[in-house]
Design a protein that fits this description.
Blueprint: H1 16-36, H2 44-68, H3 104-139, H4 148-183, H5 186-197, H6 207-212, H7 218-232
Helix pairs in contact: 1-2, 1-4, 2-3, 3-4, 5-7
Length: 234
C-alpha cells in the first residue's frame, strides 16, 4: 500500500526517518487488512510470514534506535527498566509545572528528558504489542484454519500494535527528530542513518532497505538511493 509522498527532498539526513515510518505504517496496515480479510483461502502460515516481516523489521529498527540514537542524545537521566513498562503518560507527569520555572535552560532540559522518557516507553510498548501477536500465533502452531474467536483475537492484537507504533512515530517526529536536526552535525546524522539502513551483521546488509522500498513512491525511492550512496561511502 502506497500513500502520498511524505518527503519531497532530503533536507537533513535524519529526514529518512519519515520514509522509514511510512514503510512501517503501510506494512502494519497491510497486516491488519490481511487478518481482517482472512478466510478459507488464506493460511495461518501466510499470515505469519506477513506479520513476521513487519515484526522483524521493527525489532531491528528499535534495537538500532535504542543503541545508537536515543542513547547518544545529550540528555543525562537515569532510565529505570521497570519504569519503561509503566503507563506512558506518566513520562510527562510534572511537565505542566515546569512552565513556571524561571531558568529556561532547566526547563528545556527537563522537558527534553520527559520527551525522551515518553519515546522510550512507547518503544517498549510497541515491542510488547508485537509480542502479544506472537503469543497468539504460538498458541495456533500447527493449525491450518483460523477459528472466528482466534481471528478476532489476532485482529485486536494487530490493531493495538499498529496504533501504538504510529503513536510512537508521531511522538518521534514531533519531538525527537527536531532535536537531532538542531544538535547533530550532518556527519553524525549520516553515521546514524547508515546504522539504521544497513545491517552489517547480516549476509544481506540491504535487507532493511529492500523491505522499505515497496512502500515508497518513485521520488522517495530516488531520495533513499541518494542517501544510501552517501552513507555507503562513510
Amino acid at each position: 500500500m502506497k500513500e502520498q509522498d511524505v518527503l519531497s527532498q532530503m533536507e537533513y539526513p535524519i529526514d529518512v526517518m519519515l520514509l522509514i515510518h511510512k514503510a512501517f505504517s503501510a506494512d502494519a496496515a497491510d497486516v491488519e487488512q490481511y487478518i481482517g480479510d482472512f478466510d478459507e483461502e488464506h493460511s495461518m502460515q501466510s499470515f505469519t510470514l506477513s506479520f513476521n516481516e513487519w515484526a522483524v523489521a521493527m525489532m531491528y529498527h528499535a534495537d538500532m534506535e535504542d543503541a545508537h540514537m536515543t542513547v547518544d542524545m545529550e540528555i543525562d537521566y537515569a532510565r529505570d527498566n521497570e519504569n519503561e513498562h509503566t503507563d506512558i503518560h506518566t513520562a510527562l507527569e510534572g511537565v505542566e509545572s515546569l512552565i513556571n520555572l524561571n531558568e529556561n535552560k532547566d526547563l528545556e532540559y527537563r522537558v527534553k528528558e520527559a520527551i525522551l522518557s515518553l519515546s522510550d516507553a512507547l518503544h517498549v510498548e510497541v515491542i510488547n504489542k508485537l509480542q502479544d501477536v506472537m503469543d497468539v500465533l504460538d498458541e495456533e502452531i500447527g493449525q491450518q484454519a483460523l477459528i472466528p474467536r482466534t481471528k478476532r483475537h489476532l485482529f485486536e492484537k494487530v490493531v493495538n500494535a499498529r496504533v501504538t507504533q504510529d503513536d510512537h512515530f508521531e511522538n518521534e517526529e514531533a519531538f525527537i527528530l527536531p532535536i537531532i536536526r538542531e544538535h547533530w552535525s550532518e556527519e553524525e546524522q549520516l553515521a546514524l542513518v547508515k546504522i539504521l539502513l544497513l545491517d552489517n551483521e547480516s549476509d544481506n546488509p540491504r535487507w532493511f532497505i529492500e523491505w522499505m522500498t515497496p512502500y515508497l513512491s518513485q521520488n522517495e525511492k530516488a531520495l533513499l538511493d541518494d542517501l544510501e550512496q552517501k552513507v555507503s561511502n562513510l
